[in-house]
Design brief:
76% of the residues lie in helices and 0% in strands. It is elongated.
Length: 76
């Protein structure tokens, strides 16, 4: 019974990860403007852990600084 619960939990997590929108410039700029949970969700969605760490380091920065980071990171 417990093993079945674990398997269901793993598939639910994998499905949620697939449904999560990938970070892009527009999403980043929206998160910079919204702050809080939006910024945290953006950082958590970044697959590369170094980039994710860099995102988290901007959490307490101003919206302007976050927008600059978004343009640098996603505005190619």
């Amino acid at each position: 019974m417990i093993a079945a619960s674990v398997e269901i939990g793993k598939s639910d997590i994998a499905e949620a990860a697939r449904k999560r929108p990938k970070p892009n410039l527009n999403r980043c700029l929206d998160a910079a403007a919204g702050g809080g949970v939006l910024w945290e969700n953006l950082c958590n969605a970044i697959p590369n852990w170094l980039d994710r760490q860099d995102c988290w380091s901007k959490t307490l920065k101003s919206e302007e600084e976050k927008r600059g980071w978004c343009k640098w990171k996603f505005g190619k």
